[in-house]
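Quick question, first post here. What does this chain look like in 3D?
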Amino acid sequence: MGFNGIGGYLNRPGEIPVEVIIAYFVFALAIAIILGKRNGGLKAFKTVDWVYIGIGAAAAYVWEFIIGAIIGRAVPSGLSNFIDVGFWGRLFIVFIVAALVRKVGAGMITLFLFNFFSDLFHYGFSGEPMYFIYESLTYGLFVDLGIAITGGKIFGIGVTGSTSKVVALAAIEGGIIGFLWAFPDPIFYGAFFKPFLYGGVVNWSRIIYDLISFIPGDVVIGILAGLASNRVQKAVQV
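> Answer (accepted):
Ran it through. Tokens below.
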């Protein structure tokens, strides 16, 4: 018998073993904390950081489920796998929050709150806390790993050197995180969380197709979001 809509199905055909998922979460969290502490990205949040996170999470919800959903209706059905206006808007907003806060935890907390708003106003809380875990420890954690690795200088913010160097860093880091953001939906959700919650057979052909479809757009939007986030941070700090 399930709990709160969680079937708890393990070892479904094609499902990623739960041990692999847990190992990833533990390892990735440990890396984010260790590198954040070593490089300077692990710091206490200030009041203004919480403001940025709260506004960003709310804005991400509004964009993805309201504005993006309306704009997305204009996308031809045959291109919907390649163009996701709502998701790309969320990526943009979360990147900007990361650029403004630049502390490990900003990504995970922003995605946690985004998921809370999504449950509160759209989906309902069935399946929780699995969706909180999914959103926070995939999309959010990828952003926090970027903050930890760069020592809080994500998207070239605070890096000394020429303008071209800063621009290159913003584009490269944005593209890398954008690339990583292509993985959670097909791999983590499609191959583990979905079968774990609802059962069924994992269709790896579909998962691979989705992943290949998502990567180009997410990388391009990631690059643009990295560049935009750098500029927004500079404008806010003026």
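The two ends are 56 Å apart (CA to CA).
The chain has one domain: 18-237.
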